[in-house]
User: What shape does this take?
Amino acid sequence: MAHKKENVTFDENEIKKAELRCEKILAGIATETDCEIVKEQLGRFPRGMVAVGRRCACGNPLATVTRAKLEDGTPFPTTFYLCSPQAVRAVSKVEANGHMKRFNELLASDMTVAAEYRKAHREYLAFRHVLAQKFGDDEEHISGISAGGMPDRVKCLHALIAQSLSMGRGVNPIGDMTLDMVKNEFDPDVCRCEIPFREREQFGFDGKSDGKSESGS
Ligand SMILES: [Zn+2]
Assistant: This one.
């Protein structure tokens, strides 16, 4: 079923919180190196990416932050996008193992989790609203739409874990539970990257030297 459009308004506290969060996240503004790494991770250039939501212990991007509207005008509701190959693989396994059904049952039966999940949806939207204002992007076509099936279904754990990584624990309960489930394969505090950030800086993107070798070639 298509997302029902709703007009969401935020109170002063929600906006204030989103502004602080946005400021903090935009401090990790996406550099050219970040964009190149994400391009390698996703196999496509990350259009509209403005910041790194969360980095691996080594510095590699784990989740991207994307504008509400891409340069060509395409509306983009998925503000937080999971880009770590290790995380994507681990979360795909969780999805394939039938945990979506379990999470949806949990949402239907546990009112506390359901309320936290709805709040995560609002925090997602408030963040995007503040971000959109900063960049002058209009959100008309994605109004009320967050990601991952929020506010009342679980449809994509990748989107939810990306929110947990970018906003930190304690915001999205399902994203947090997914983080716990994949801990042995993916953990933002444990680098399992094929090429850690430092090595990239030293050797460039394809493991070759940067061409400044003294021996001459
Ligand atoms: Zn790493």
